[in-house]
Amino acid sequence: MAAGVSPVTTIRAYFESDSGTRRQLQDGEALFHDGDPVRQMGFVLEGMVRLLRHTAGGVPVVLQAAGPGDVIAEASAYSVNYHCGAISHGQTRLIVQPVSVFRAALLADAALAEAWAAQLAHAVQRARTRAELRTLRTVAGRLDAWLGENRTLPDRGQWQALAAELGVSREALYRELAVRRTRG
Amino acid sequence: MAAGVSPVTTIRAYFESDSGTRRQLQDGEALFHDGDPVRQMGFVLEGMVRLLRHTAGGVPVVLQAAGPGDVIAEASAYSVNYHCGAISHGQTRLIVQPVSVFRAALLADAALAEAWAAQLAHAVQRARTRAELRTLRTVAGRLDAWLGENRTLPDRGQWQALAAELGVSREALYRELAVRRTRG
DNA sequence: CGTCCGCTTGACTCAGATCAAACTTGGTGG
DNA sequence: CCACCAAGTTTGATCTGAGTCAAGCGGACG
Q1: pLDDT tens, A119-149?
Q2: Per the CB < 8 Å rule, is B75 touching A118?
Q3: If both were cysteines, with which of A13, B50, B75, B76 could A124 make a disulfide (CB 3.0 to 4.6 Å apart)?
Q4: Do A63 and B128 touch (CB under 8 A)?
């Protein structure tokens, strides 16, 4: 970055200082649904929000898992309708702001715009990495690739979520974890 | 867009008017390789460039297929090294420009920065759509999803490329196409 | 104490990867 | 014109990994 400040820091500073509204979501509560008109941007302070889309067969697919410091629906800032739904996982605190305000701020503040572009570029890389992960056919391969990106295996109780993120069935992941437990 | 101009138009206008260098790539020629330091942005005028990454097993995966009007390595504008390689498919004409120049232009021109952000947002959506497509397990499902996005089936001779894009084996795609040929 | 939820494990099934062999198409040169 | 070659396509046979259904286990919590 030109100023030597990380993009996340710049964006966080903007959301925390500006006229955004604080909101709280309960477990399972939706911030928006697939197809809704795009009105608000969200910045996660605490907790986690999942972006979900349902395939033709009705199976839900996780598009993004947004944690603290992430912007929700970053890809929808210039869209008319959301192309996915956002569901809170556990209790989540976040800041929401009308898209129009955010876009005006981007036009007015070049440094913010640069940080935003960097953030989006990073999101593109992560999305592509995820697409690449899902071309791997074996559970073992996907898990290895995931562990290469994220160093730590989540705690017991979070494994179903991991299975969803890897795009495999619960049982298949449990089995793979069992195999690894009986080795190194 | 604020100005009512599509982001692609704005970006194309910038690349064509500015001090970029025209280049031509032959079939199979690389613009850059995985791991190279990021130096240049590319804008495709004609032909196609594929972004490839190799999995641990050595199988190449297509991350993006950039055609006329697309920017190559848009996700790498703020990265140090490329996270994939770029190989020309057929003969390709493009405009290249140092990243530093492009980033300076983004800081100086708010409208260009907005168009750029919109372009990136679109790239995020496409990458997520591709990830979603690859969570479908059957060839038929993936092909249907792909046909839902892109209206037309490519010509004979391009089916291997399609198989790679769908993340299935050549034979599996041929079989699925054969089944559909004997019906509607 | 009983229920719920996540985890574990078994048995079965099936779609697609892989290996293999033939066929089509287009181009090249004799 | 034909022999020949290369690349892409077609089709068959086999194998394998993961999805699915199903049953049982264990801790947390009211």
Answers
A1: 999 999 989 888 889 989 999 999 999 998 8
A2: no
A3: B75
A4: yes
